[in-house]
């Protein structure tokens, strides 16, 4: 029995594939390379020593999806494939709603037709919106401030409704906080297209000399040093969370939701200073105005994942910044030559 990983060539999907293979699962990757590289597949083979079945294409293509289910014995799907750039989603909302929402519906329809009713979904702490106070718990109301965020809120709702209507389904929504870090081999990591939106790839590209300096968006928040506080989580811890969530998903039915965060907030300046100290590099920065849509503080209460899944984040902020830097310094241009 195999696990279909949609978006398996992406940042979180590739790391999750490593952990699935390490725990004895068979993996089939589906990816359209819209935000990833075919080179990831070679790197995964080097890390795991295994050949991984791969299909290139989109979750929007139902006949193609059907073929994958007919050709393989799939027991569950881990669904990462989605667009994820907040700013782009504001400019091109239909692109986001089409790919993320229609794509998820297409996947669920083909799963149901093939009687595969177990799915673990890549959701985000973005669904907590701007009004909930950290530490965030799974029972808080969800909302969003941009089309990307709304696609996550809606996809969770669609999955919950499907599980409510047909009691054979098991759906698990995993709300990620801020994944950073990389596999310790330095062979796979985060490789955004163009100028990074997120802080860690921005820092590593400054460190490697591709970008001149970091802009810190605001130092007048109500936080200990005035800069934004986030719950950074090592991508390998996150990947391990998927393996445990999958085990729970396969053993149960109904809807499940878990925060996957370290449960600890660090400021932008904490992150920059830790990066500099651990890696012995300097990150020049200037303080800029706040970025639209940002909140002061966002971190998880991860007790539920601990109690039900037996999962806690193990790696420290120092581990995260060292692994991010190893990846970027060994691959200054990401997966491009
Ligand atoms: N920041 C900077 N400079 C930058 C980029 C970010 O100072 O160049 C700051 C932000 O203001 C924020 C912190 O660094 O305080 C983290 O910002 P990121 O863009 O890395 O992450 P966000 O917390 O804004 O967003 C991330 C994901 C979203 C997801 C959200 C969920 O990118 O997809 O977490 O909480 F929805």
Automatic annotation (TrEMBL):
* Known catalytic reactions: UDP-alpha-D-glucose = UDP-alpha-D-galactose
What enzyme category does the UniProt record give?
isomerase
Query: What pathway does the annotation place this protein in?
Result: Carbohydrate metabolism; galactose metabolism
| CDD domains referenced in this protein's UniProt entry, alphabetically | UDP_G4E_1_SDR_e
Pfam annotation, one family: GDP_Man_Dehyd
Q: Which domain of life is it from?
A: Bacteria
Q: Which UniProt keywords apply?
A: Carbohydrate metabolism, Isomerase, NAD
Task: Give the cofactors, semicolon-separated.
Answer: NAD(+)
The molecular function terms in GO held by this entry are:
UDP-glucose 4-epimerase activity
Residue ranges of the NAD(P)-binding domain? 4-323
Which E.C. number(s) belong to this protein? 5.1.3.2
The entry's family comment says: Belongs to the NAD(P)-dependent epimerase/dehydratase family.
Which NCBIfam families does the UniProt record give? Answer: galE, PRK10675.1
The record's subunit annotation is: Homodimer.
- Protein name from the UniProt record: UDP-glucose 4-epimerase
Q: Which species expresses this protein natively?
A: Candidatus Nanogingivalis gingivitcus
Gene behind this protein: lnpD
């Amino acid at each position: 029995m195999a696990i279909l990983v949609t978006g398996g060539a992406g940042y979180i999907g590739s790391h999750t594939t490593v952990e699935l293979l390490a725990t004895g699962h068979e993996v089939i990757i589906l990816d359209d390379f819209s935000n990833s590289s075919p080179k990831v597949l070679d790197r995964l083979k080097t890390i795991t020593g295994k050949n991984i079945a791969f299909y290139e294409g989109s979750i929007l293509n139902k006949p193609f999806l059907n073929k994958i289910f007919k050709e393989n014995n799939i027991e569950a799907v881990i669904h990462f494939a989605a667009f994820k750039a907040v700013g782009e989603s504001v400019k091109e909302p239909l692109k986001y709603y089409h790919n993320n929402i229609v794509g998820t519906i297409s996947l669920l329809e083909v799963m149901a037709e093939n009687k595969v009713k177990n799915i673990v979904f890549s959701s985000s702490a973005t669904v907590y919106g701007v009004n909930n106070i950290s530490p965030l718990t799974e029972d808080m109301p969800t909302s969003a401030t941009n089309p990307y965020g709304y696609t996550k809120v809606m996809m969770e709702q669609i999955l919950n409704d499907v599980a409510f209507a047909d009691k054979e389904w098991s759906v698990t929504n995993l709300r990620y906080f801020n994944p950073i870090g990389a596999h310790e081999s330095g062979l796979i990591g985060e490789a955004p297209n163009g100028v990074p939106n997120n802080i860690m790839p921005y820092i590593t590209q400054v460190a490697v000399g591709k970008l001149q300096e970091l802009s810190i968006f605001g130092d007048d928040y109500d936080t200990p040093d005035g800069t934004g506080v986030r719950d950074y989580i090592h991508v390998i811890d996150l990947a391990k969370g998927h393996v445990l969530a999958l085990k729970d998903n396969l053993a149960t039915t109904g809807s499940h939701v878990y925060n996957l965060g370290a449960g600890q907030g660090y400021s932008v300046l904490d992150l920059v200073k830790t990066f500099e100290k651990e890696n012995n590099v300097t990150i020049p920065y200037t303080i800029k105005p706040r970025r639209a849509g940002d909140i002061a503080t966002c971190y998880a209460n991860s007790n539920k994942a601990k109690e039900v899944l037996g999962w806690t984040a193990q790696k420290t902020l120092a581990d995260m910044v060292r692994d991010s830097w190893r990846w970027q310094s060994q691959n200054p241009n990401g997966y491009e030559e």
